[in-house]
Design brief:
Elements lengths: L10 H18 L14 E4 L5 E3 L15 H15 L7 E5 L5 H12 L9 E4 L8 H8 L6 E5 L11 H9 L9 E7 L7 H10 L3 H9 L7 E5 L4 H15 L5 H15 L4 H15 L5
Helix pairs in contact: 2-3, 6-7, 8-10
Keywords: ATP-binding, Nucleotide-binding
Protein name: ATP-binding protein
GO molecular function, one term: ATP binding
C-alpha cells in the first residue's frame, strides 16, 4: 500500500529528473578510448590509459652502425623477418652489458624489415616498464588486427615486491586463448633472469622451500625462446664503432687524434660500448661545429 505521507509523483514529473541523472552519469563516465589507427605510423607507444600514441619519427641507429654484435644482429633479424612473413618465431630477451646496442638493435631491425617489401608493414609498439600490467589488455587490442606486431619493453626488470611480472607471464603464455599469432614480445634487460641476484638469494634464504620460492620468478625468462647475450666490446671493436660513425657523419679529424681522444674518452668513463662511442662522436661533432644529420 502506498504511504500517503510520501506520494509517488506522476511518471511525467519523474522523466526530467531521470534524464538529468542519466546526463550527469554520462558526463562522469570516462571517455571511450578510440580504436587505434595503425595506418598512422609504423611505431607506437602504449599509454597508461590504454591508448596507442603514434610515433612519426623513431629515434634509432642505422643497422650498419651497430658493430661488435654481428651474431646477435643476424639471429634477431632472421627471427623477426620470419615472423613478419607469417612464419613461426620466438619471443626474444636481449640481456647483458649496458650501452651495447640492445634497444638500438630492436629498432634497427624493425626499420630494416620494413624495407623488404612486405605485404603489410611490421608495427613496433613500445610499452614502458611501469605499464607492463597493461600488456594483456594491449594483446587484446592487437589480436584481431591483420598487421603483425613486435611489442617491445626496454630495460625490463623486477624488484622484490613487484608482482607485475605475472601480467607479463600471462601475456607470454596467452592463457586459454594462447599468445596472439600476430604478436611477438621483445625485451631488453641488464639481467638474464630479470631479477637481481641478491633478491634471488634472499628469497632462497628465507623460504620454507628455497627452490620453489624463486621458481616462479626465474621461470619468467623461460618464456623467451631467444636469449641473446651482449657483452662488453674489445678496444678494436670500440674503435671500429668510432670509425663507422665518423664515416657516416662525414667528420673531418686526423686518425691519430681520433684514436687518442676516443680511447681517453672511454677510459674516463670506465666503459667501452656503442653508447660511449656515440657520446664521444656527439662531443667531437660539437667541437668541430658539424651537425649529425
Amino acid at each position: 500500500m502506498t504511504d500517503p505521507t510520501y506520494p509517488i509523483p506522476p511518471e511525467a514529473d519523474l522523466l526530467p529528473v531521470l534524464l538529468r541523472i542519466a546526463a550527469a552519469l554520462e558526463r562522469s563516465a570516462p571517455a571511450a578510448i578510440p580504436s587505434p589507427d595503425f595506418a598512422a605510423a609504423d611505431a607506437f607507444v602504449w599509454q597508461p590509459e590504454g591508448r596507442l600514441q603514434p610515433v612519426p619519427r623513431v629515434n634509432r641507429v642505422e643497422m650498419g652502425l651497430l658493430r661488435g654484435i654481428d651474431r646477435m644482429r643476424d639471429i634477431l633479424f632472421d627471427n623477426t623477418e620470419r615472423f613478419a612473413r607469417g612464419l613461426p618465431a620466438n619471443n626474444a630477451l636481449l640481456w647483458g652489458a649496458r650501452g651495447m646496442g640492445k634497444s638500438s638493435l630492436v629498432k634497427a631491425v624493425h626499420a630494416e624489415i620494413n624495407t623488404r617489401g612486405l605485404e603489410r608493414p611490421l608495427k613496433l609498439i613500445e610499452i614502458h616498464r611501469e605499464d607492463i600490467e597493461g600488456l594483456p589488455a594491449l594483446m587484446g587490442w592487437l589480436r584481431p588486427d591483420p598487421h603483425r606486431f613486435v611489442v617491445f619493453c626496454d630495460d625490463l626488470s623486477f624488484d622484490a615486491e613487484d608482482t607485475s611480472y605475472k601480467s607479463l607471464k600471462a601475456a607470454l603464455d596467452g592463457g586459454i586463448e594462447g599468445r596472439p599469432e600476430n604478436v611477438l614480445f621483445y625485451a631488453t634487460s641488464n639481467r638474464r633472469h630479470l631479477l637481481a641476484r641478491d633478491m634471488m638469494e634472499n628469497e632462497r634464504s628465507t623460504a620454507i622451500n628455497p627452490g620453489e620460492a624463486v621458481e616462479e620468478k626465474v621461470s619468467l625468462s623461460d618464456r623467451f625462446g631467444l636469449w641473446l647475450g651482449f657483452h662488453k666490446c674489445s678496444q678494436d671493436e670500440y674503435l671500429a664503432m668510432i670509425d663507422a660513425y665518423v664515416a657516416r657523419y662525414g667528420l673531418t679529424v686526423e686518425p691519430e687524434r681520433l684514436r687518442a681522444e676516443a680511447l681517453e674518452w672511454s677510459t674516463t668513463r670506465g666503459a667501452r660500448s656503442g653508447r660511449t662511442a656515440f657520446q664521444y662522436i656527439q662531443d667531437l661533432a660539437g667541437r668541430l661545429g658539424q651537425r649529425l644529420e
